[in-house]
Amino acid sequence: MIRFDQVTKVYPRAAAGASALDNVSFRVARGEFVFLTGPSGAGKSTILKLLYMDERPTSGDVRVSGYNSHDIKRREIPLLRRRLGIVFQDFRLLEDRTAEQNVAFALEVIGTSRANIPGKVSRALTQVGLASKATALPKELSGGEQQRVAFARALVNDPFVLIADEPTGNLDERATRGIFQLLREINAAGTAVLMATHNLELVRSTDYRTIELNHGQIVFDSADAARVELEIE
Amino acid sequence: MNLAFRTALTAFRRAPLLSALSITTIAFSLFAFGLFGLVALNIRNALQRVEERVEIRAFVSDGTPLEQIAAASDEIAKYPEVLKVDVVTQDEALERARRELGEFKDVFEAGVLPASLDIRLKPGSRDPATVRTVVDRVRGYEFVDDVRYGEEWITQLYRLRNIAGVASIALGLAFAAVAVIIIGATIRMAVLSRSREISIMRLVGATDGFIRRPFLIEGSITGVLGGMLALVLTYLAMRALEQYLHLETAFFDRRVATLGVLFGALMGLLGSAVSVGRHLRKV
After folding, report:
1. All domains of chain B, ordered by start, with CATH?
2. Residues 93-122 of A with CB under 8 A from B
3. Where are the domains of chain A?
4. Residues forming beta bridges with residue A28, ordered by sequence position
5. Is the interface score ipTM higher than 0.90?
6. What does the pLDDT look like over B195-219, one tens digit per residue?
């Protein structure tokens, strides 16, 4: 479903020899939950950008749901993104639109018929537990609630994978727990989740797969460790 | 209503100040363009009026039978360049001179002025080269003594008209280019003010065409409104000129006015297409 093969990424303006990603390979299976951890600048966000083809690898291949970074055409990128759900630390909501308008926006821009929009929006807001605040503007919502609206927007098109870049980075502990619980529920419903995070406490509290990055390289992948343990046994 | 159209209208409602600024900027660029166009139009009209007076006068030798003159007149009237030929007898020439130069009427005596063929040319055949061709042919009649057509005058007139024509086109294009750049810059401000919205649109899978459409509509509407405002401003300026300088001026007819507004829309469309295109390539 998601496959990175010997991916190296060097940004054009980076210092000589500094790669954001250096020969990174991994796979994510359908319905899997994967944490991407590591210090700032380790390459977590670059992996996510490569996933939604905002960036292309300098070398190597990124494959996402039948699309290959090598030969995907510019006009095909929107089609790929319609199959992904993307959430950021800063929510990225439109401040002058209500929660339901923000969610509907994701449907309007891909040409969903107007008759189908209200039902889908209502379902997505219910899924994230925000049905009662559908008409609130972002500024009238708490950080955790705003992030839930962002999740509803990401989920409204039924993505096969949810890509979350530090989704709890701006939230307090209680809101973080709430968002994480939501992510677990989304995953339990069959959507794969790829979540970049600094929050090691959160990572350690679960047995989800963890890929740890440092200086653009994978330094630990719990899937490999489990395999090694099995082989030793 | 179509989503792109609604989004474009919403943009006007959300940022009324920026929209007003864009419309005013376009209006002033087009106003400058319109003023220049108005000057060019009036120069052209004035020249046309002068040009209508271009006349070839072929003086006929004394004693030439009237039938011979009439036959030549019929022949000349068939030239493709010729609009009309009038035979002016000696008596009529005298009468005309007395009428036009009243204070000297006693000076003129019968027989002093020669008979003539007064030839008027069709519009489009009044340039120096064509006039000269007709003159050469008329000189071929042996009873024609002399041909007068104000050669120097016609050449000057045409030079002036050509200069005015070239200046209209050059300055018009310069104004149009400036207007497109200004529209591009104002639409760019609108694009930047909505860059967050655009980035979200891209994240959720909107195509470039979808993102571009409302801006193109917005640019066109801005252009049309700017064009209409420019038309009003140009009209008011013309009225002011008429009133204070007592100049009789012509205004654009409905067809030209519509073309002007459409030109505004085209500039708005072009300016926004360039701005949005540049922004989309960057992000």
Report:
1. 3-49+158-282 (no CATH), 55-148 (3.30.70.3040)
2. 94, 96, 105-106, 108-111
3. 93-158
4. A2
5. no
6. 888 888 899 999 999 889 988 998 8
